[in-house]
Amino acid sequence: MLQALSRIGRLRTLQACAALVVLLGLLLWWLLPLGEPAPSGTLTVSTGVRSGVYQRYGERLKGDLAKDLPKVSIRLRTSEGSQQNIARVASGKADFTIATTDALATYLNDGGPGADRLRGCVRLYDDYVQLVVPRDSGVRKVSDLTGKRVGVGQPGSGVRLVADRLMTAAGLDPANDVTPVPSGIDTMPTELENGRLDAFFWSGGLPTSAVQELSDRFAIRLVPLEAPLIKELQAAGGSARYYRSAMMPADAYRNVQQGQAVPTVAVANVLVTTDRTDPALTEAFTRTVIDSRDRIGREVHAAQLVDLRTAIYTDPLPLHEGARRYYRSVKP
Q1: Distance CA 204, CA 82 (A)
Q2: Which of 19, 158, 213, 328 is the 20 to 30 Å CA partner of 1?
Q3: What residue spans of the chain are helical by DSSP H?
Q4: What pLDDT tens digit does each residue of the chain (332 aa) get?
């Protein structure tokens, strides 16, 4: 009898120990992180000029990234725009950036250093080309810029690329038929207001705050970029295929458009990195960009246009593996 009771006691003790081991295992599984470690380190994001959409978007995205990637330090670096942004990321001087698809295609077609390493994460929003003149200006079409002082963007900007192409499509020599002024959106509005420019080109999300603020204090007009001009622009082939006809909505700049939509050129923006960037980090970065759309969009309107259904289409760049993981994780 005593031996039987002893065996029952030992059995119950073993069962209790086994249950305790299972319980401890479950507790450890819950408390300890498994799988890939959380991303850490420092990231440099190349943005744009201080009053442009790239910079304003980057500043607000930085706050969301700090919450979602607490072990990652985010550094924003201003730039002249798309062309300089691409060169920085391709060379490893920045980790992420935003650039227009025409500028990306041009860099790829030209065989720029590190071009084969560039990868896309998110198709973001469209830039709209804006040719701004004083309201009483005689400039009604691009060819009327002959002999004028024209702000064409800084050498490393995306606006410089499209401004030169538009003037060429209109039959102008951008270097000789106008006086090109290499200013950015941080200075062109003031230069137009003070009479140092007769017109300026800008390519950005709608509305661009610098143009909006100019319209609040100075009477301006947007010159239409009509379909025949855009067809001529696209006829150049190559990276020009990324331009498309579009309409600036009538309410983009209420003080300027007087209830009228304005025909223009649009080109998509892409969030860019390289194949050097860790997949887990890129997946997390991509998730934050998508998840922060509505919050950032309340302050930077263009961010509202990020659409999960089209975000995956990062042509002309192949999709980064980390971004691909994210899109698979949210696929219905």
Answers
A1: 11
A2: 19
A3: 2-31, 53-68, 82-91, 101-109, 158-169, 188-193, 209-217, 227-234, 254-257, 279-291, 293-297, 321-330
A4: 445 445 555 556 556 555 555 555 545 444 544 456 677 789 999 999 988 899 999 999 999 999 999 999 999 999 999 999 999 999 999 999 999 999 999 999 999 999 999 999 999 999 999 999 999 999 999 999 999 999 999 999 999 999 999 999 999 999 999 999 999 999 999 999 999 999 999 999 999 999 999 999 999 999 999 999 999 999 989 999 999 999 999 999 988 998 899 999 999 999 999 999 999 999 999 999 999 999 999 888 888 889 999 999 999 999 999 999 999 999 86
